[in-house]
Specification:
The complex is a heterodimer. By secondary structure, chain A is mainly alpha-helical. Chain A is built from three helices and no strands. The longest helix of chain A is centred in the middle third of the chain and has 34 residues. Chain B folds into two domains: 61 residues, no CATH class; 227 residues, no CATH class. In chain B, 55% of the residues lie in helices and 10% in strands. Chain B has a three-stranded antiparallel β-sheet with strand order 4-3-8, with no helix packed on it. In chain B, helix 1 crosses helix 9 and helix 3 packs across helix 5. The longest helix of chain B has 45 residues. The interface between A and B is medium-sized, with 12 and 12 residues.
């Protein structure tokens, strides 16, 4: 019990919350870029396979990228809330 | 990088950067704040504070600030409409606050605490409460400007269509028609279906153009642009709430049945503790919530990046004036690149918001599988 309260005091003093927020934002950036790069790679490959479908593929790629970015912004907003409240 | 072909642009950029950083000299940091009121906090005493600069441009305000040169302010005062229980309805211009330093008729703009930046009412016992605030703030005024612009464009296009029936379109019609056809064919008909899409077209068109025009106007640095409308979470919350209300009103029997009494799910997940209905309701509420956050975060992040690049110039300039001059070409180039990206993001976010709204309408009005 005492150890827990000492640990919590150290955590609060060392601003571990801010460290967590920074790590969260970095992890979100990594995850979002990995996901969207996969979309981009497969979209470009399929355009290479069938150039007539380039318009359709481009529209779908942009929609999927926007949806995944939306999820990453959830995480960014949580990190910003930690930093500023 | 051997550049022997004479004086290219790259050469000049590198030369300029080297010379300005090499010939720097220190100067005493200038006294940049104008009002003695601000001398209390040490942060604002010296030079440029990028956090305050960025947040001032992102947040809403009671007057439209155009420029400040040393002690000389130009800003457009906007009407403040507050209703308090003790003092009744008060309407006055925000110039009475003298940029937030005076109080007027018992109201003032709070500078710290829970209501920072907003109008509070001074009560006799020293506490501050927030009255009912219906002021025309900067974002509201920018929305009005966008509404006037949209009404002007679309009413004149509609009148042109009735005047030139059967003939080829001319003028502004040529610009607007492909966009409206795109929204009708690619977004509305493909998501909602041929039979039911017409009912939703006015809302989808308004949504698309409202979001697109407000995004673009937020990128223009001078009046009437420059207000961060779609980066204000209450504006995006209102838009998402409209989509949610339209979906809920137009939901047919199959839509509500899928949420509350989904077929094919065993009964014990629904009867004692309605687990699946709760999950479905959370899903139903999450969809407009993520619409709201996606638009808000994309636009605000773009503005913060552009403002951050600009404040880089002043942060470096406070250290050494020549360093500020040196970083400015780089900073401006990056800002131009980011602004092009933000133009693309403005269109994409409007498209994604409208497409997802149409998808939700399609799901709400779909006939059974």
């Amino acid at each position: 019990m005492i150890t827990l309260s000492v640990l919590l005091q150290v955590a609060a003093g060392a601003a571990l919350g801010k460290l967590g927020a920074a790590f969260g934002a970095a992890a979100t950036a990594m995850a979002a870029s990995m996901g969207i790069s996969r979309i981009g790679a497969t979209a470009v490959e399929s355009i290479a396979r069938q150039p007539e479908a380039a318009g359709d593929i481009r529209a779908n790629m942009i929609v999927s990228a926007a949806l995944i970015e939306g999820v990453s912004f959830f995480a960014v907003v949580v990190c910003l809330l930690i930093l500023f409240t | 990088m051997t550049c022997n072909s004479g004086f290219s642009a790259k050469f000049f950029i590198i030369l300029f950067l080297n010379l300005s950083s090499a010939f720097g000299y220190t100067i005493a940091s200038q006294e940049t704040e104008e009002h003695p009121h601000q001398a209390e906090s040490e942060k604002q005493n010296k030079g440029f504070n990028p956090g305050d600069f960025i947040f001032d441009h992102i947040k809403d305000a009671y007057d439209w600030h155009i420029l400040t040169y040393k002690d000389f302010h130009i800003s457009i005062p906007l009407p403040v409409i507050v209703y308090s229980k003790t003092k009744g309805l008060n309407i006055f211009f925000s110039s009475k606050f003298h940029h937030g330093h005076d109080s007027y008729k018992g109201f003032k703009i709070a500078h710290e605490g829970k209501y920072e930046g907003k109008i509070v009412e001074l009560m006799e016992d020293g506490t501050d409460i927030r009255p009912k605030d219906l002021s025309i703030s900067k974002n509201v005024f920018a929305i009005f400007i966008c509404i006037i612009l949209m009404l002007w464009v679309f009413i004149s296009v509609a009148r042109a269509y009735t005047n030139t029936q059967g003939k080829a379109p001319k003028g502004l019609q040529n610009f607007v028609e492909p966009i409206i056809l795109f929204i009708r064919d690619e977004i509305a008909i493909s998501s909602i279906g041929e039979k039911k899409y017409e009912k939703f077209m006015p809302y989808l068109l308004t949504l698309f153009f409202f979001i697109w025009i407000n995004n673009m106007m937020g990128l223009i640095p001078i009046f009437p642009g420059g207000a961060n409308v779609t980066g204000n979470i209450t504006v995006t919350m209102a838009l998402a709430a409209f989509t949610f209300v339209v979906t809920a009103i137009n939901g047919n029997k199959f839509y509500w049945q899928e949420i509350f009494n989904a077929p094919g799910i065993p009964f014990w997940l629904k009867i004692p503790l309605p687990l699946v209905p709760i999950i479905e309701i959370i899903g139903m509420l999450t969809k407009p919530l993520i619409l709201m956050i996606r638009l808000f975060a994309n636009i605000t992040a773009g503005h913060i990046i552009a403002l951050g690049f600009f404040s880089l110039i002043f942060v470096f300039g406070d250290m050494q004036v020549m360093l500020g001059f040196g970083i400015s070409p780089l900073s401006i180039l990056f800002t131009i690149f980011m602004t092009f990206l933000e133009l693309l993001v403005a269109l994409i976010q409007a498209y994604v918001f409208t497409l997802l709204s149409a998808l939700y309408f399609g799901m709400a009005t779909a006939e059974n599988h």
